[in-house]
Design brief:
There is one protein chain. This protein is α+β, with helices and mostly antiparallel strands. It has one domain. The protein has a 4-stranded antiparallel β-sheet with strand order 5-6-7-8, with helices on one face. It has a two-stranded antiparallel sheet with strand order 1-4. The longest helix has 22 residues.
Length: about 90
């Protein structure tokens, strides 16, 4: 399945909207861009699990990866990782 990822700027913040190319309620692959991080969530058809990984923008180094039973749970893990990284960097400075 193809996903179109139009990115718009509003009030100085980037927002990302995802539109699946088919009528499926959940995409097979989802890219999220947030606060300097890029996350990819892929639905494994064979297992039914949602696999995710997080990198920094313009980097190939995987900072976080895992799998969850639902898309919402995978998105939550990605969000939690980004928040924890922000807090870690804030505490270090």
């Amino acid at each position: 399945m193809l996903c179109f990822l139009p990115i718009s700027r509003s009030n100085g913040r980037r927002s990302l909207s995802v539109s699946p190319a088919t009528k499926s309620s959940e995409p097979d692959k989802l890219h999220l861009i947030r606060e300097g991080y890029v996350a990819e969530i892929v639905h494994g058809r064979a297992t039914g699990l949602y696999h995710f990984l997080v990198t920094r923008e313009n980097s190939l180094e995987i900072l976080c990866w895992g799998q969850e039973n639902t898309l919402d749970a995978a998105r939550h893990c990605v969000d939690e990782f980004i928040v924890s990284e922000k807090e870690r960097f804030k505490a270090a400075s």
